[in-house]
């Protein structure tokens, strides 16, 4: 018996030491990957920022030279003055530098959040297994079962985005401009932020990206990495807000072309009575009061899209579209569709999309810019 005890303890000790070494290697690898991700993001975005700075400095120097030339023209030489004035005008109207990805988000700033979540899971696992070893585990699920259950039913209360006020989301503010080349002829645009359904068709020029069977319009902006947040004011009528794949065919029929009625788009619809989430032709009715302001939070890398009701700087989660497996015996056609097809939507670049369904539909994209500045000042 003594030999048996010693042999079993030695074998167990060796196995534990080996597993701890392997676990340490996993953590070291994860640390190396996260650190590398931060360094790569820093290099990439610094390169963009420095190139943009050089471009702006060259542009400023060119404008300054044109201005100086104009000021040096003799007052009596009208032709020379007009020539120099035209040169300055052309320089001022040159295309601006391309938009920078870091203006929307520094994509490596979620690393702390990811590592913190990993640490919490690890701490919970250690405590759970230690309690089991000591015989203190409570009746019910073991850690593995708890982990599986958590994956089936994600607790949104643990998501920082659900605990924070609106200020949290403004860190990912995405400035959207409506694309007039996509607007259906029964949509009137007000600048780049407002859209209203009208009865008389508007003679827009022909465009291969224009919707012809659905009263829809897209944002010019593309989303393919990081996090994005924008807000929409529901002014009147039935309005749907969502995202759509860049390669979606705008000439699809009405039944297939509407937001959420295909696997290339999804949306939150207000139908005058309640909210409804749509994807792939399946719907999920949401029992929540009406909110004039809807916040949209796209986590591209997480393959998740969440809609919030916004009021007094507080956020109420209306619906999150994300793969989340159901427990055995449960059936939800909408979530099953999400689980089977939603991930494929993120194989494409995405665009903000809007569907003005009723004849009185009217929306306005929320002005986040001033709010973002105020948040930065407070922080």
TrEMBL record:
Pfam families registered for this protein in UniProt: SPRY, TRIM_CC
Keywords per UniProt: Metal-binding, Zinc, Zinc-finger
GO MF annotations, alphabetized: zinc ion binding
Domain B30.2/SPRY: 155-372
SUPFAM superfamilies: Concanavalin A-like lectins/glucanases
Keyword Iron-sulfur: no
Protein name: B30.2/SPRY domain-containing protein
Organism: Athene cunicularia (Burrowing owl)
Lineage: Eukaryota, Metazoa, Chordata, Craniata, Vertebrata
